[in-house]
Specification:
single chain, alpha/beta, TIM Barrel, 8 helices, globular
């Protein structure tokens, strides 16, 4: 059993640091690095890319809305042409930082509100996929299975990688519970680890209404800004390795 463990990194800005990037890079296998639109800045991008290359962690571009103030968690109505251009711009910026560090962007994952909106909004999903295909048609898209993003990836000829979230609650539809709702983020470390194991070993998780949701992910996400993210990621890794899993980037 091969499992990828990803986390969102590089989400500070200037002198403000968010999360523990260096410590998480010792645990995870893929890093979703902010590209300067929802978070991050050029210096942070270069620093995190260099640290990821040093540790053999796959670099992914976490593209988002142009929304530093809202941390990319506010849904935006944006024309597909403009969204595609924004995604392309972010990819180019992170690729430059990755190349300078001796690496390259290996996959793309939308962030926050763009991730959730593009799960159901066909026009936004297609705009993201079109931009990625124009940049590099070999780059996989990492997103929710059974979503408009999956359909858009296939239509654009992109590889698609389904993921699951160990620290987020699910609706019975397979979508994430909106962060504005109670219980959307799971902070009990025992529950987070148990859910990660359920995804990886049994391809199922319990939805917020008590029902079961079938999800067969190739990558598991732990949010880098979740309290205790390093501990959670380390415990998930230990549990999966003890169960016989091999932790490795899905792009390897």
């Amino acid at each position: 059993m091969r499992v990828d463990l990803n986390a969102d990194l590089g989400e500070g800005f200037g002198v403000w640091r968010l999360g523990e990037d260096e410590r998480l890079l010792e645990v995870i296998t893929s890093a979703n690095i902010a590209c300067g639109f929802h978070a991050g800045d050029p210096t942070t991008m270069r620093r995190v890319c260099a640290a990821a290359v040093d540790r053999g962690v796959a670099i992914g571009a976490q593209v988002g809305y142009r929304d530093l103030v809202g941390f990319g968690r506010r849904r935006m109505e944006i024309e597909p042409e403009d969204l595609a251009a924004d995604v392309l711009y972010q990819l180019g910026a992170l690729e430059a930082c990755a190349r300078a560090a001796g690496g390259r962007v290996r996959y793309v994952k939308p962030h926050g509100a763009l991730y959730n909106t593009a799960a159901d909004d066909r026009r936004q999903a297609e705009a993201v996929a079109v931009a990625v295909a124009a940049f590099d048609p070999s780059l996989p898209l990492l997103a929710l299975p059974g979503s408009a993003m999956e359909d858009a990836a296939h239509a654009a000829g992109l590889p698609f990688v389904p993921e699951a979230f160990a620290d987020r609650a699910y609706l019975s539809t397979g979508r994430l519970v909106p962060r504005t709702e109670p219980g959307a983020v799971i902070d009990d470390p025992y529950e987070v680890v148990a859910r990660a194991a359920a995804f990886a070993l049994h391809h199922r998780v319990t939805a917020i209404d008590g029902g079961g949701v079938a999800v067969e992910p190739r990558s598991l996400c732990v949010h880098g800004d979740t309290p205790g993210a390093v501990y959670l990621a380390a415990e998930i890794r230990r549990t999966l390795v003890d169960a016989g899993a091999t932790l490795a980037p899905f792009t390897a």
